[in-house]
Amino acid sequence: MENNENYSTELENQSEQIELTHSDKMIGVFSEPSNTFSQIAKFPVKTIDWLLPFLILMILAGAIRSLAMLNEDVYYEVKKNQTEMFDKMVKEGKMTQEQADNAIEGSEKSLEYMRGPVGWVINIVSSVIFGFIFFFLIAGIYFLLIKFILKGEGSYQHVLVASGLTSYISMIQIIIGGILTFLLGKIIMDTSIANFFDLEKGSLVKFIASKFDPFSIWTYSVLAIGLTKLNKAENSKPYFILVFALWILGGLLFFYLGKVFPFLGGFGG
Known about the structure:
Radius of gyration: 22 Å
Number of helices: 12
């Protein structure tokens, strides 16, 4: 009997020493995020675990954005939004009518150009470059807050892994958003309820509605679990509070910055 117990313990210890493959981690993010990140925490960080998923996510985002511009309804909606933005700036005295007319003409030429093959490359490359800049910046904020406020044991690379692996969930969100864009004939940035109501663009009501997004909530929940496990913390509650507070407050920051700098409006939801 004692031999059987020893054998079971030995098998359990051996299984704990087996490192998950990247595909195992990808599946585990969906099926068993807590166990998956606990297992990842036992081994040295691997660059591929954050680099590959986030790179695919940014390429996918750029490709879907380019594909959406081939839809005539979407194309004309973007043109209309840009015209309205410049008209608003004229009314607010931020530019003259002549400047606005020149800007509108230039933006229309750029939109037409971006529908071609070179535009696709520019869209994808810019998504990758600016996406990674934003990715590293946000990861740095998480790391500093976790290190000095939550006293976590993890490194900056652990934050990158937790953030990167959750990108697999975001990929589904982007694909669904792309499908909805073609079905509804308007750009869908997320999978929130805000897309299904006629809400005033740039309004606080629309911002609040944009946070009722099942995929975003799912993504941030898994991120909180990942950060908890990779920092070897026993209580996940502080990590959930941190992740969702940054999501809401960061969104509010960009929302109000979008009032001053219209090109930032999309970041705030």
